[in-house]
Fold this protein.
Amino acid sequence: MSRLHQTGVIPLPTAFLVGPVVSAGPGPLPVARQLRALGYDVVEVDALAHLPAAVASAPPGRVALVDGRFVGHLHALRRAVCDSRPEAIAGPGTLAVAPSARPHLLDALTAVTAATAPTATAAPRTDSPSVKSPRLSKSSPPDESAVDIESAVDIGRVADALSESVTVARTDPAPLVAGIAESPQERAALEARARAVDEEAYRLKSAVKAEDTAFTTFFVRSYSGYAARWFARLGLGPNHVTILSLIVALGAAATVATGTRSGYVLGALLFHAAFSLDCIDGDLARYTVSFSKLGARMDLTFDRVKEYALFAGLAFGATRDGDPHIWWLAAAAMAFQTVRHQMHAAYEEVSAGPAEDAPALADQVQARIGGSRWKVWLRRAIVLPQGERSALICLLVAFTNPRVVFVVLLAVGVIAAAYAFLGRILRSLRRVRRPWSKSAGLSLGALVDVGPVGWIVHSSLPGRSLPAPLTALVALLALVFSLAVIPAVGVGWVLLGVLWYVLIVGFASRQPLNGWADWVLPPTFRAAEYSLAIVLTAALAPAALPAAFGYVAACAFHHYDTIYRLSEDGTHPRRWLTIATGGHDGRMLVLALLALGGATVFSVGLTVLAIALAVVFVAESVTATAARIRDRDATGVPAARATAGATR
């Protein structure tokens, strides 16, 4: 979707039909009809000399160059001009460019124009109000006699020139048909080839995600493609299905909160339906070639919200059923899942680079087992991916009780975390003498979430004399000791333990964090903060455990948000947010000080702190995400119109 005009009208993205035309009979060209079906405003340009000015004067938004001789399937054209993920994408006779790359396209057109002797005299012609032609009306047929073949636009040449300044993705339409017809005979041959291919069958097959986990492959992907097509025919987009998935999951949370067996069974069914919709939205995006940064962020964020809302519903239902201490198990399950994901994200941040330096786990597994699909599924299942985790949750909710759900999730999570941790440590050993990159160190610096107190410490002390992981382990041991002696000496020692922790953590987090095992710092710090909140609440004010759950949920949202920003475009929350919220070490100091005030002060303070953090973290994330998407023009492509009976 392109940016708003000052009038408030959203302009259509523009497609320029260029080059000589091989007649396909009276009326508009078939490729022009296809482009309009995809939501493009079509402008016809005869000569290369007129193209730079036409592109420069086009409305804001995505632009595409399409050879007027293009013949092929609609979905092949859709994939070539509607995929908004790359800045530029080229196919047979097509080149689509995002708004951010339009200046580079103009430079490429200028370079190609300068290298070509212009001899054509025909002016741009258009059947839309975007570009006015003084010589041709909307109904005027193409004047092929006015086109000089020497000045025809070679889109492949333009794409090559553009690739010098922008990464140009290349799309292969096979097995669909897409080509350039140089003569009526070639057009007839391409049309015959297109009729021989079942476009809809391929479109449906390619929409379904390949190489998924075993549970998702057999129990969701078998029907998700058909459901995606049905949603497309209803006119719904991927983001609509993502929101629907969240609504269904919240319904599941409300259902299990009743604390009845029928509520648990119905909640499990609804939660599985929410997971299915979560898979369908991706299939729908591929089916309609409708990708957006906003949709990707919503999908990732809602995954966490749905699961943690279900945890809250289970805990509330168990409380109504006479189990008031279930909240600490719910908070522990949520905290451990976040710690595990932090470990994965931190390692991925430092290992992003050449495959020979740090190959991904899936690549290593597949290389070792020689392509055995069942072995791949088994090894993936060990690390408890989302599909298997969702299935496990649904089965446990339907047939057991909330306490069993959380205990089993914690036990299985420990096994998965141990397996993943061991593999990452072994692969990191190759970096003992070769540190990770500086960019990896900066990413870890954002993930550790150390606040102003830590900044003062590590800027005042000399360089580290011990490796950061070992220093962090010492800090963690000091904290664990202070929590372990609470039953014997009270909460007074907690403040001392937290002070030691903050001091040592500030020392450990000194940049650069690019040592061979520095990626263990973010999950270690998450475990420390979440454990402090849960243990202090359970020991001092058990009635405030729901507030501890909310505190962990708010912090987990922030830490996941940081991961998503880093993986998306390398950004992270601004410094003012860390100052305002204290960083994880500052928040731990606040918790320890609240504990000194007794149960009532701690309960009220924890509740206020959880609410304040949730408001600040969510508000900052929403405003920052909206600003980045608006400034980046990431949605400069129309939602591909995937209606029934699309023209081939």
